[in-house]
Amino acid sequence: MSDITLLPAVTSFLAREHGLFIDGHNLASQGNAKIAVVNPANGQVIAQISDATQADVDQAVASARQGFKTWSRTSPAARAAVLFKLADLLEAHREELAQLETLQSGKLIGISRAFEVEQAAHFLRYYAGWATKITGQTITPSLPSFAGERYTAYTLREPIGVVVGIVPWNFATMIAIWKLASALTTGCSIIIKPSEFTPLTLLRIAELASEAGLPAGALNVLTGGGAVGKALIEHPGTDKVSFTGSVPTGIAVGQAAMGAKLTRATLELGGKNAVAFLPDVGIDKAVDGIIEAGFLHSGQICAAGERFYVHRSRIEPLLEALSQRLGQLKIGSPLDETTQFGPVANKPHQQKLAELFAIARREGSQIIHGGRIGDGPGCFVEPTVILANSASDTLLNQETFGPVATFLPYDSEEELLQLMNASPYGLSASLWTNDLGKAMRLIPEIQAGTLWVNMHTLLDPAVPFGGVKASGIGREFGSAFIDDFTELKSVMMRY
Ligand code: NAD
Q: Measured in angstroms, how far is the CA atom of residue 149 from the centroid of ligand 1?
């Protein structure tokens, strides 16, 4: 098979002069600095985007403040209608957006279609449904009346204001949709800074949002590097940051937010997610589970499994079967629909993985399968299986965010729990067993924001998602996000 043909809409979009999206339209940056967007499958530059300046930041914030006035006074039903329309437009432009996403990130075209567009539209509709269901409480005050007067009280959930959304490169389209959906459904306006590696789909989605009827200023997009994100957080005209990215950047973002003006911050960060197989799980089921947990989108998923714990009696046959399955994967161009395993998303990431393989070799871990990077212009990395020497090996402690599964055998359930929880992170974990009673006893003992049983990685908009410990603060999805995008106002009355 060969690559699919790019749509004319994609080639003409790529050929454009890319500006910023401010006040409802494309606008040239006030500076000249550009950043190249590179296709990680072949190393070719596909677009140049602007690195926004402080003047651009000021202009976007002024627009978002104005946008907030209009949007927060728009009725909940009208807000929902715009977001439903945007979801329809995402689907109508499914192939165009999916191709752009694959070109900028190297994601398999099937994953771009299914997750970055279809799932994103599904999430957007879920969030849109909340617009008409955000409520406060009525409260009977607790103190007694002193001289016959009475009291009553109620709470209002008010939109927080201008939100700064900062997005990573791994699911550039879907995570941007989560951010804009949370902000817009609660009546906030938002300025999103996409990753400098993957900014293109969001620039197109901002145009579709205008087409859906979103008023000018409710959604602005500023492209550029980390400094643009920092300038937005520290700007006196912004009220909250919703950040998704790595732990070190997340800590810097949290500090900047608190240090600037107690800007509210929710942080969705990385981790070192544990996957535990109890001895009753069959080898084939375990191999399927490891591929689902560790190798989907080349492991470039924040919730992906990275540490795999297998009972000592099962580890040898399991690693053999896994290596065999990984050896059968068709590696190649992400635009070829028959490819099963594509490149990682960018050169620095490929280099980081090469360094981690070198560390694993230095520390004497066994590389059971893979362990090499490609030497061509594309960012290819072999799917890799590593057997660690001990729990302190680097590959069992540092996030790889790549197609790397590191294994350690355990002997008892007590040891398994100790290993799973001995991490400063706690985004996700999964437990694999056919023994329901055992699972129910272990679930409360495992430290993770999301714990899957006999599954891994699947996110649902109705189920809250976020990290414990150093994997983050706050939750997306469910109704939990509402607390983070609104302020609670208490109203008390005497009569
Ligand atoms: P990153 O932290 O390097 O960058 C994320 C974003 O932050 C980018 O847009 C970047 O430009 C911006 N940024 C960089 N420095 C900044 C600063 N000082 N102030 C403000 N913004 C700044 O992360 P990445 O490499 O793009 O993404 C991979 C990481 O994201 C992994 O660690 C992964 O686990 C994590 N992630 C977490 C989730 C989640 O929901 N918990 C989801 C996806 C990815």
A: 54
